[in-house]
Structure formats: C-alpha cells, structure tokens
Amino acid sequence: NAGVTQTPKFQVLKTGQSMTLQCAQDMNHNSMYWYRQDPGMGLRLIYYSASEGTTDKGEVPNGYNVSRLNKREFSLRLESAAPSQTSVYFCASSSSPTGDKPQHFGDGTRLSIL
Amino acid sequence: QKEVEQNSGPLSVPEGAIASLNCTYSDRGSQSFFWYRQYSGKSPELIMSIYSNGDKEDGRFTAQLNKASQYVSLLIRDSQPSDSATYLCAVRDTGANSKLTFGKGITLSVRP
Fold this sequence. Notes:
The complex is a heterodimer of chains A (114) and B (112).
Chain A: E1 4-7, E2 10-13, E3 19-25, E4 31-38, E5 42-49, E6 56-57, E7 64-68, E8 74-78, E9 87-94, E10 104-105, E11 109-113
Parallel strand pairs in A: 2-11
Antiparallel strand pairs in A: 1-3, 3-8, 4-5, 4-9, 5-6, 7-8, 9-10, 9-11
Chain B: E1 4-6, E2 11-14, E3 19-25, E4 33-38, E5 45-50, E6 54-58, E7 61-66, E8 71-76, E9 85-92, E10 100-102, E11 106-111
C-alpha cells in the first residue's frame, strides 16, 4: 500500500546542475501537485496537474518545469539549480480534479544546492 | 492572493488539556477545509476534512467551521505528548481550479 512515492529522498546538487524529482501514486488519483516547504513559509505550490494531460503554474513556478507522464506519474525538473531552490519538496495527489477532496502526500525529497 | 492565516504560535498545553487551533481565510466562497498534522521531518498527514458549518468530531479531534465568519478551528481533547507536531490548515480555492492554500502552520507542544 505505497500511496505516493517520491524519489530520491535526499539529493545534493551544485549550482547550475539539473535534476528531476520523480513522483508516482498508486491510488488512481486524478490530480497531482508539487510543493516546496521552507522554514517559516509553509507549503507553497509550485505546479499542479488537475488531470492527466494538463499542468498549471502554482504560486512559485519560476525555475521549475513539470511533466505529467501518465495518470500515475508527475515529475518536477530543475533545469539549472540555484541555492534558493534548497528546500524540502513534497508531491501530493487527490482523487478529485476540482480540489474538494483531501490531498495525500509523499515522504518528501530533501534537496540541498551548494 | 488568497490567504490562510493561523496563530503564529507556538502553542504549549499540559497533557490532558484541550488544545485549540484557529485558522481564518480570505476567500469567502471557499467550500472545502482540511487540517493536516506534520511531525518534525515528516510529511503532512490528513486529520480532518470539513465542508459544512458546525462541528465534526473524530475521536479526540473536533473541527469547527463558521463560513460567515470565515474561520475554521481544530480542538484536540485530552491532549497527549504524541500530539506535539505542527498543524496545517488548508482551504480549497474557489473557481474551477483544484488548488489548496495552506496556512504556515502552528506548532503544538504538549507538556507531560
């Protein structure tokens, strides 16, 4: 009963490097989300996908790209990492495409950029 | 920009007491409200959903919603040290999108 699985759990990058954070859910959910969480800032939405084939910007999309590969998978890419992107990244999913059902979170990816 | 405000905290209560966590929101049309608990170093986990005015009880937890006053609260009865965590309030944005806006959270400490 995996739920939402994120890989990797930890990553250290150098400034300018690129990487992709992976997220997969096995709950047949329609909507998927990427958040970042920084101390004192709460959870901030980066990008979301209300349904397979659609993606939309959230509150803090700059420096990121996403791909909804299929219904199960939603990846987040940092093309040229910057120290300001050091954060904990959470992927979440929800059964409802309209947001009126709870979101379920993965365990997070702790990303440090030097 | 839709806003969700939570008491800045931290909140400290003795074991066995009632902890009251409050949240106000700016989007008058919001219809769906959620409380999440987040232990240090862990991911948020859902505690309660509430959609209608009034109280909703689940074990030691009670969510209260007042749409006219635009606030939602979470009461934890018989608080236990294991309840020590950060509690996040989340409100669904109105409109066709599917986004939630999260408050910054309040940290609760239950003293043995």
